[in-house]
Fold this protein.
Amino acid sequence: MRLSTVILPVRPWREGGQEQWTSAEELGFHTAYTYDHLSWRTFRDGPWFGALPTLTAAATATERLRLGTLVTSPNFRHPVTLAKELMSLDDISAGRFTLGIGAGGSGFDATALGQEAWTPRERADRFAEFVPLLDRLLTEADVTHRGTHYSAHEARTVPGCVQRPRLPFAVAATGPRGMGLAAAHGQAWVTTGDPRIFEDGTPEQSRKAIRAQIEGLGAACAGIGRDTAELDKILLTGFTPDRGRPLDSLDAFVDFAGRHFALGIDEIVIHAPIPDSDFAADQAVFEKIATEALAQLR
């Protein structure tokens, strides 16, 4: 059982941003992630900093804390340039980086480069090409590939990652194609629950949906002869019908986490509080959860 946090990149580094990352290490979180967007939802018109530069700064400000994205997507990334940046970040962090990666959505990132938003089918097609090529780029020194959506010509990724054979992928997926990518290329799998029941579902329905997702991941792994136990199962909270209630108190979180660990989830990720937002929470409760919750669950 692991407890991690996600720090949205909304605070300038010298105005509380750095302190959040060093505090996450001091509180004992396993990993501190950030969102890899150009802007996001209700934060669109406020400060929002780049994920990879922020994580690079965090790598220099911490020593033990793992770092990662939840999640990077093809919406505005290309595997060749992304691979070079990830290799560099893995080096700067001394091998403490995990790449959360997903197919992307239809939010602001989908059209920020001037393109039409891709359909769900197009996003899935691109994701199915993006992940294997990125895998190659991070494990092979010289890659040439010509695909439908992404190509590389004699792309060099030298000296490669500190973590071998490459830094870990945490693949966000709910459908069969995404589960197949997680099984084939992932060291972890990420879920936020079932978005179809976020508004009107119940916590019980949500846990049932997550159980079914884990079973789907198991089937995808079995299909290629892989043991599903080799993949960590990560739950990013805040998007299930429970919403922010697990952060109401230590007891509420212990109950929530215990029920999800029992399903097979290995790592639970909670948002660092942001006042006057969907992620508003009591900072003292957040810190109490970080320092005391896992001891009650073991």
Notes: The longest helix spans residues 203-223. The beta strands are 2-6, 31-34, 66-72, 97-101, 142-146, 151-156, 169-172, 188-191, 232-236, 267-271. Residues 207 and 215 are 12 Å apart (CA to CA).
